[in-house]
Specification:
Bound molecules: zinc ion
CATH class of one domain: Alpha Beta
Largest sheet: 5 strands, antiparallel
Strand content: 15-25%
Distance between the termini: 57 Å
Structural class: alpha+beta
Length: 213
């Protein structure tokens, strides 16, 4: 199948023939890729400033912002089904047992820096025809959101909502409405034993229960 790959050692970026992935574990699902975002990280990778191929490969398939449709599921994949639209996450846990963030499934807060990232660091990305990954790294996109997102972003002249439509001003300009509440950044759990750089707003249980007041 086709894929867009960067060869850092040769400073080359091109369309290549890449082996089609197969489901190898019962909780994996296979996706047909529909859309890929390109961001500043991709520009850096394409400038050969950044990007690490998987071990044993001289190239890295790029693309880490994706939309795919599930076309096949493993025998124990129960959280996604064929036909679902999904966004697949980028970062994968470091695997060190002492990393409480990765052990709790919060690898975006990895302590060790030894995480991998699809399309960026040590794992092939999504700018290709088919992708296989574990269901736990897939977020289902509700079909009604996908429909409204694509119609609003592709319409050449979006209709202005009437003044009594109830939509906020920000929403009319296609901007994200203000969050109704934000997580406090000041420590609220003084018993927290998480490292200082995580402060006390770490989203996982971060201290032994019996030490809490
Ligand atoms: Zn990005
Ligand atoms: Zn980690």
């Amino acid at each position: 199948m086709k894929a867009v790959a960067v060869f850092p050692s040769r400073k080359e970026l091109k369309v290549i023939d890449h082996p089609e992935p197969k489901i190898e574990s019962p909780t994996q699902a296979k996706l047909r890729m529909l859309d890929i975002g390109v961001c500043g990280t991709d520009k850096e990778i394409a400038r050969f400033d950044y990007g690490t191929p998987p071990a044993g490969s001289d190239y890295l398939v790029i693309g880490h912002e994706s939309l795919g449709r599930v076309v096949e599921v493993g025998s124990q994949a129960t959280s996604v089904k064929v036909g679902d639209l999904v966004v697949t996450m980028v970062r994968r846990p470091c695997g060190h047992p002492e990393c409480v963030a990765c052990a709790a499934g919060r690898q975006d807060f990895c302590f060790t820096g030894d995480f991998t990232e699809r399309g960026i660091k040590g794992r092939h990305g999504y700018m290709t025809e088919s992708v296989v990954d574990d269901q736990r790294f897939m977020v289902i996109v509700p079909l009604n959101s996908a429909t409204s997102a694509s119609s609003s972003s592709r319409s050449p002249s979006p209709k202005k909502p009437s003044s009594n439509s109830g939509r906020s001003k920000n929403a009319c300009r296609g901007e994200r409405p203000a969050r109704p509440e934000s997580r406090p950044l000041t420590p609220t759990r003084p018993w927290c034993s998480a490292p200082a750089r995580l402060a006390c707003w770490a989203p996982w249980p971060c201290g032994p229960a019996d030490s809490r007041p």
